[in-house]
UniProtKB/TrEMBL annotation:
Name of the protein in its database record: Cytochrome C
GO annotation terms (biological process): peptide transport
Family: Belongs to the bacterial solute-binding protein 5 family.
Domain Solute-binding protein family: 67-428
GO molecular function: peptide transmembrane transporter activity
Lineage, opening ranks: Bacteria, Pseudomonadati, Pseudomonadota, Gammaproteobacteria, Aeromonadales
InterPro entries: Peptide/Ni-bd (IPR030678), SBP_5 (IPR039424), SBP_5_dom (IPR000914)
Keywords: Signal, Transport
Source species: Zobellella denitrificans
GO cellular component: ATP-binding cassette (ABC) transporter complex; outer membrane-bounded periplasmic space
Length: 518
């Protein structure tokens, strides 16, 4: 324990954190911090949680997966291709500028150009100003997921982000993994303002005194986010009272948190799929379906869930979890070591080969341990894996370059819909539309692409579900990727934090609504 507390103290002192807390000031320890303050630079959980702190969406998901009005106080369908949104009046950005339809349209246009987000907004053709507080979003045809999609439209302050910097750079430019005005400067409408940020050390947020949502029960004045990569160190910080809220809690530490005084474990069923991609563009043997199938047959998903995840996950044989529209109950994990060896021999690789693999070590629960287990499993079919793990801030630039033969990625559907998995992970890569943005397997199947595109225009729900299930069958038979499990979620909190109402399966707690009891 003493050694653990020394590590905690070192981490918090490095962040400049003082050990006295006021009633409505909290410190959070996460495994990683946001890579940028630009809500459109990186489509990731850290970015989305940051967006809910500093910005606000038009609509947001409730804990029960219903739609809740936010900056749009109501909406109505005008015709098959047009949804009208009525904005709240009197909402101010952190700069003092008032939110108008112009800001929504400016943000919409920026999303359509963002490498990470444009695939989500690809079905939309334009945003039209009706008046200062009314906007029409127009799709290219009937589209069943308009509300799902606008949960990712966080209006930005168009006046604040327009113009050029002293260096002559466009303030509104989206720069992947680079320094930009929007990555370090913020003017949103959210419950908190950015006070201070040092990448990899700490982020400080202060309450927005002019926040529009006066009905929010949240009473937190200041939040300090400290990234602590090590699971055990993060838990030690909570148990010592040095931090108030942590994420994630590794399955190995659940009993430790449950048994401790003054803290609690808060859990939610998860929908994030953890996978490995097989890079066909970089490693030629992965172009052979028999080799891809062999890799799938060699990996024991149930063993990973039981031994590494301690049962706190659900084995996966496809992208969407049970309960999602398009989940196919026939598609189950394939583990069969003899079959894997047979397929390798049939493909001419009985003696195996060597591959490179990359995985983060602070993004998903037990990510590096899972990668090590997969490496060991593949050795049984003579695949020698050169594994490299790294912090997520270093991982995403490497992943974006598809710089390995086998790559780990987790994905939570941005629209809470099955099609979104394929739009980003398995559809043919297309830089113009954004389709396949995170498809580092370079899998390409025109039939799959056509099914997903057709499903996104189909308003007959039984027909749409059949299309999505057929798409999952194609991916399964092609062994397009390696599904591992759907990751459940766990947070640790001090007992005086009412964390249960603000956590959700999307994995971005609504911290603006967090109540700290006296």
């Amino acid at each position: 324990m003493k050694k653990g507390l020394n590590k905690v103290t070192a981490a918090l002192l490095a962040a400049g954190f003082a050990f006295s807390l006021q009633a409505a000031d909290i410190t959070i320890a996460y495994d990683s911090d946001p890579t940028s303050m630009d809500p459109h630079e990186q489509l990731s959980g850290q970015t989305l949680e940051m967006s809910h702190l500093l910005f606000d969406p038009l609509v947001r998901w409730t804990k029960e997966f219903d739609f809740e009005p936010r900056l749009a106080e109501k909406w109505e369908r005008i015709d098959e291709e047009t949804m009208r949104f009525h904005l709240r009046q009197g909402v101010k950005f952190h700069s003092g500028n008032e939110l108008t339809a112009d800001d929504v349209i400016w943000t919409f246009d920026r999303l359509k150009e963002s490498p990470d987000f444009k695939a989500i907004f690809e079905p939309f053709v334009k945003a039209v100003k009706v008046d200062d507080h009314t906007v029409d979003l127009v799709t290219s045809g009937p589209f069943p997921l308009v509300l799902n999609t606008v949960t990712y439209l966080f209006p930005m302050d168009s006046k604040f982000y327009s113009g050029t910097t002293e260096e002559g750079k466009d303030k509104g430019e989206v720069v992947k993994h680079g320094s930009s005005f929007a990555s370090t400067n913020v003017s949103g409408t959210g419950p908190f303002k950015l006070k201070f940020r040092q990448q990899g050390v700490k982020v400080e947020y202060e309450r927005n005194a002019d926040y529009w949502d006066t009905q929010s029960p949240g009473n937190v004045d200041n939040i300090t986010l400290v990234p602590i990569k090590e699971d055990a160190t993060r838990v030690a910080a909570l148990l010592a009272g040095d931090v108030d809220f942590i994420k994630p809690v590794s399955p190995n530490d659940h009993d430790r948190v449950k048994a401790a005084a003054n803290v609690k474990l808060v859990t939610e069923p998860g929908t994030r799929i953890i996978t490995f991609q097989l890079n066909q563009d970089r490693f030629e043997p992965f172009r052979d379906v028999r080799v891809r199938q062999a890799v799938n047959y060699a990996i024991n998903q149930d063993g990973i869930v039981q031994r590494i995840m301690r049962g706190f996950a659900t084995t996966a044989g496809q992208q969407p979890p049970a309960g999602y529209f398009g989940h196919n109950p026939e598609l189950v994990p394939l583990f069969d070591l003899d079959k894997a060896k047979q397929l390798m021999e049939e493909a001419g690789y009985k003696d195996g080969f060597k591959i490179s693999m990359i995985a983060p070590n602070n993004r998903y629960v037990n990510d590096f341990r899972i990668a090590e287990a997969v490496k060991a499993m593949l050795a049984r079919i003579n695949i020698d894996v050169d594994l490299k793990t790294m912090p997520v801030a270093q991982y995403w630039p490497e992943f974006d370059k598809c710089d390995a033969d086998m790559l780990m990625i987790g994905w939570h559907s941005d629209t809470e819909d099955t099609a979104n998995f394929s739009e980003f992970l398995t559809m043919t890569r297309n830089s113009e539309t954004g389709r396949g943005q995170y498809n580092c397997g370079h899998y390409s199947n025109p039939k799959l692409d056509g099914l997903i595109e057709a499903a996104n225009l189909e308003t007959d729900l039984p027909k749409r579900e059949a299309m999505l299930q057929q798409a999952e069958r194609i991916l399964y038979d092609d062994a397009a990727f390696v599904p591992l499990h759907w990751q459940n979620l766990a947070w640790g909190a001090r007992n005086n934090l009412e964390a249960e109402p603000i956590v959700n399966a999307m994995d971005f707690p609504y911290l603006g609504d967090l109540v700290v009891k006296e």
